[in-house]
Amino acid sequence: MFGQLGKQGWLIMKATSLPLALGLVLGLGAAAHAATLDDVKAKGFLQCGANTGLPGFAAPDNAGNWTGFDVDYCRAVAAAIFGDPSKVKFTPLSAKERFTALQSGEVDVLIRNTTWTMSRDTSLGLKFAGVNYYDGQGFMVRKDLGVSSALELSGASICVQTGTTTELNLADYFRANKMDYNPVVFEKLDETNSAYDSGRCDALTTDASGLYATRLTMKSPGDHMVLPEIISKEPLGPVVRQGDDQWFNVVKWTHFALLDAEELGVTQANVEEMKTSDNPEIKRLLGVDGTFGQAIGLSNDWVVNIIKGVGNYGEIFERNIGTSSPLEIERGLNALWTDGGIQYGMPVR
Amino acid sequence: MAHPIAEDAPLRTAEPRVSFLNDPVKRGLLVQFVLLVLVVGFFAWIVTNTAENLQRANIASGFGFLDYRAGFDIAQSVVPYSQDASYGYALLVGFINTLVVAVLGVVIASFIGLLVGIGRLSSNWLVRQISTAYVETFRNIPPLLVIFFWYFGVLAVLPQPRDALSLGFGFSLSNRGMFTPRPLFEPAFWVVVAGFAVGIAMTVAFSAWARRKQMRTGQQTRVLPAALALIVGLPLVLFVLAGSPMSLEFPQQTRFNLVGGLQVKPEFIALMLALSIYTAAFIAEIVRAGILAVSHGQTEAAHSLGLRPGPTLRLIVIPQALRVIIPPLTSQYLNLTKNSSLAVAIGYPDLVSVGGTILNQTGQAVEIVIIWMAVYLGISLATSLFMNWFNRRVALVER
Ligand SMILES: N[C@@H](CCC(=O)N[C@@H](CS)C(=O)NCC(=O)O)C(=O)O
């Protein structure tokens, strides 16, 4: 009896890394498999690794439906494969759990504000399929602290979540600017945020997108502000396992198709009419001409399915995080290259 | 050597000739051998399979990463640490933090547990009720909730550092933890340390003398006043004579935090309080059971010899109760140590928390999990060995 009660401490480990590590050990995961697309088709749904709850990016709503920018990317991939954006199941993953979950095959793809870095792209055995959101790390503080720049934060206590690039950038930034700080490091998003909200820390740091989303979950969002400094490059994008080029292409080209559709003016509302367009680019994109879909193992109308399901990149952006949403994020870097941003879809040709 | 006896064997004149499989000794050896091969084979398979899987998935493996630069900061460390240290050293920092919590937790939990355990048997009604309420409350709440209670419920609602609660003498309490003055020692302080050591040595000698005298003459000598004078008084006198070679550094208010002095962070306080209070509830029950296990006749015998209740408890009951108490106590100590890994939930940088960060930066999940398991196993085995040794020492020697 005593023994059993004491095991609680291990629960945390068990609940997170242990089964995942075991998955790797026993090789039960799809890590050994290469044909993810066939597996997904056979299963009948896409298993997508998502955030545990970042409003605007990925969060279950009151009815338990997942919504958000990253969630729509998952749905886009599902629509490309099945012609049905609802054929997707979500696995909420903390920062710390996400890579092991992908490596061990627990999820087919990870679309969860994950920064593309060299080590993740190499020694973790993963591959980034693109950048769906160009971001950078920032700081949030309480307005009444009277701080207007991150350079004034010397000596502050800073809440940060473990398992993120954030933790390292923070260390680099303070060292480069010869400032001191006290890191307070949490494992879960909720705990990080409530520690900041309760005043344990003077500042909260993470991707700027994450800050805007998090601010909405504070007791009184109006009391907090995001400081102007952006201290890092955080290119966020979908990730797959190495060693499966076909699957990599499906995810990568879903991303490009969303961008190309926006560039060519193909929207959820007009996609059917657009099929009759004379524009050869649109014809190729929508599968009226050519067999581009077949070439990556999908049907030729794969883009029609994506756009019918979730709309183009711009629509996904506006609906979830854009200026008309509660997050009110400007397109900025994430505008199309034709509009002064750096989002650029490779040509379907 | 066993001698299997065939049913109709009249007398054992010679070794009966039985088949290899019917000889229990040989059969036993065979079974053991087969089992050993299976176990070794199973582990060998796991190891090679893992290595292959990791390689095929292009995931880095091996323990070489322990030498790489960590690059992240750790807020609380007993030993000096900077982001330039290696991952291996960062793990060591986490390990030490775990040990600090475990050791302090064990001491505090034992102390509270002893008090409450005795309290449950007290003849005072109020003390008994309070002790019972304590045990029943804390034994039945999961430790993680107790930790959250202290961290988010109690410590987080303390005021900001700029309106910290002052406790006097430079002590203050805020949502950044407890701040106290830090003593700064001047070189001459060694006289005081030396005086302290001498005081302890003399106290030991004095109590040995007192014991011998009691053996010889039956007369008791009070050791406590002399001990106080030697251990506390002597260094104090030397301190004054040496011209007070110590000053205090008081925490200073800065823009964000208090700086200087000593800081005990809220994560540590919450973890410490929660683990000790939780485990103490179990220890109290073990202490109570141990005391009840000593037959009442022992107490009566002691009373009839003229011993007062205090010495009866100290000299007769507790030494006998310890035999019953120590084995289950060991598992409580192990539980406390393992529960300290709940630290990740509130950001105390223990072994699991630091390991988790490294796991994520290097992606070497298997290696980190192996290190975690090996370390906790090591701590647990060391605790068990020590407690078993202690148990043998206090065991009743049959005469
Ligand atoms: N982009 C960074 C940080 C991503 C990240 O995990 N951000 C946190 C804070 S916004 C988060 O989403 N946490 C949610 C969770 O762990 O469930 C990375 O890839 O390391």
TrEMBL record, chain B:
InterPro entries: AA_ABC_transptr_permease_3TM, ArtM/GltK/GlnP/TcyL/YhdX-like, MetI-like, MetI-like_sf. GO terms for cellular component: ATP-binding cassette (ABC) transporter complex. It comes from the Bacteria. One of its GO terms (biological process) is amino acid transport. The chain crosses the membrane at residues 29-47, 89-119, 140-158, 188-211, 223-248, 268-287, 369-390. GO terms for molecular function: transmembrane transporter activity. Keywords: Amino-acid transport, Cell membrane, Membrane, Transmembrane, Transmembrane helix, Transport. It is found in: Cell inner membrane; Cell membrane. Pfam families: BPD_transp_1 (PF00528). Residues 95-387 form the ABC transmembrane type-1 domain. It is a multi-pass membrane protein. PANTHER family: AMINO-ACID ABC TRANSPORTER PERMEASE PROTEIN YHDX-RELATED, MEMBRANE COMPONENT OF AMINO ACID ABC TRANSPORTER. Belongs to the binding-protein-dependent transport system permease family. HisMQ subfamily. This is Amino acid ABC transporter permease. It comes from Propylenella binzhouense. The lineage of its organism: Bacteria, Pseudomonadati, Pseudomonadota, Alphaproteobacteria, Hyphomicrobiales.
